[in-house]
Design brief:
The protein has 8 helices and 15 strands. The protein is of the alpha/beta class. The radius of gyration is 26 Å and the shape is globular.
């Protein structure tokens, strides 16, 4: 028996929280976790997601928990049974209260309980940074939230709100050929699919074989037997093969990129990716290989110089572009790039400045940043 649409993962109780009216066999379930300090940004995000996925697809405590319902139980249950939890993190998310204590250090803190429940159940968790908040460090988090520090964060800025929100929405939608099925339900659905495949294997040879396709006497009629056409199946690449396609550079890129100090970034990915992590020296040259739709379209080399502290007491510095090259096989040098965040030399970027660059006839936007001893990068379309 195939479970119903309202099927829940084992150990998660049925709730009246999720009563979807959206279409589709398995509607999206999005949980928004936030502090009251960031309620304005969270509410704006909820409205945008509800417009895209439907009101019933988004859990937002002010709208979703009814009078008389146990608040703590409902948020834990909803967080653990979601497809994705968006952890909205503002500048005071980690800050202590007036008494000097942090709410996050309290095991009964709602925000901590929401995220911890989601992480424990294997729910996809996305840190959503607002008001220039930094990514939380593992050492600043309680034990049940330390995994949060290793997740790719997404930035929502006031200046690019609609664009950033649309990028986030795109990342939430399932890729082609995938759905929002939970692992348990997917396993149930494999049973009838496997049975059907076995049935086809047993029956089809009977009808396609010349020995059984004949006249009324059971003798084969060669004139009526079609000549079978050879079928060459198109193999579906495994995730490992797809990863190899993006991370094995063409020969010219292999010579251009510094060994063990570069990463591959896919165009349109809304998350920042670490180019150099905390355990890697920041001095010297680093690089990025740019890809789009499985094609390698260019690469960049740059150097980072640490200069001191910014206004929030965070380490900061600037980036110097060493060289940009275009697509293979030639990988010709590219001079059409500029810093569009401020004036000055086009090859010098302050922390998280926007670099506009032209690759293969199209304009792209690159942001490089230094944060918590990580050098991170974001690659997307040109920012107007």
């Amino acid at each position: 028996m195939v479970p119903s649409v309202n099927w829940k993962p084992p150990g998660v109780h049925q709730s009246s929280l999720w009563s979807f009216t959206g279409t589709g066999e398995n509607p999206m379930k999005i949980f928004i976790s936030y502090r009251r300090d960031d309620g304005g940004h969270a509410g704006r995000l909820q409205a945008r997601l509800a417009r895209e996925f439907g009101e019933d697809a988004v859990f937002f405590d002010l709208n979703t928990i009814g009078p008389g319902e146990r608040f703590a139980d409902k948020i834990r249950e909803a967080a653990a049974s979601s497809h994705v939890l968006l952890a909205v993190i503002g500048p005071r998310w980690l800050a202590p209260e007036a008494d000097g204590k942090r709410r996050l250090d309290d095991p009964e803190d709602y925000v901590r309980a929401e995220i911890a429940s989601a992480l424990k159940q294997g729910v996809r968790v996305i840190p959503v940074l607002v008001q220039d908040a930094p990514v939380p460090r593992a050492e600043d988090l309680p034990d049940d939230l330390k995994l949060l520090a290793g997740l790719n964060a997404f930035e929502l800025s006031n200046e690019r709100w609609e664009y950033d929100a649309q990028c986030l929405i795109s990342s939430l939608k399932p890729k082609r050929g995938k759905s929002f099925l939970t692992p348990g339900r997917a396993a149930w659905l494999l049973i009838p699919a496997t049975a059907l495949a076995l049935l086809l294997v047993l029956i089809l040879p009977r009808y396609l074989s010349p020995e059984t396709d004949g006249n009324a006497d059971g003798n084969a009629d060669a004139s009526n037997v079609p000549t079978p056409r050879p079928v060459t199946p198109t193999p579906t690449p495994t995730p490992q093969q797809e990863e190899a396609l993006l991370t094995t550079p063409a020969e010219c890129f292999r010579q251009f990129l510094p060994k063990d100090r570069w990463i591959s970034i896919v165009y349109g990915d809304p998350a920042y990716h670490p180019v150099l992590r905390q355990d890697q020296p920041k001095g010297g040259v680093a690089g990025i290989l740019f890809t789009e739709e499985g094609q390698q379209i260019g690469a960049i080399r740059f150097k980072f110089t640490l200069t001191g502290k910014d206004g929030r007491g965070q380490d900061t510095g600037f980036f110097k572009i060493d060289k940009v090259v275009g697509p293979p096989p030639a990988c010709h040098p590219v001079e059409d790039y500029s810093n569009i965040s401020r004036g000055g030399p086009k090859d010098t970027l302050d922390n998280f400045d926007h670099l506009d660059l032209s690759l293969a006839g199209r304009h792209y936007n690159l942001r490089l940043g230094y944060q918590h001893d990580n050098i991170v990068a974001l690659f997307r379309k040109k920012v107007d």
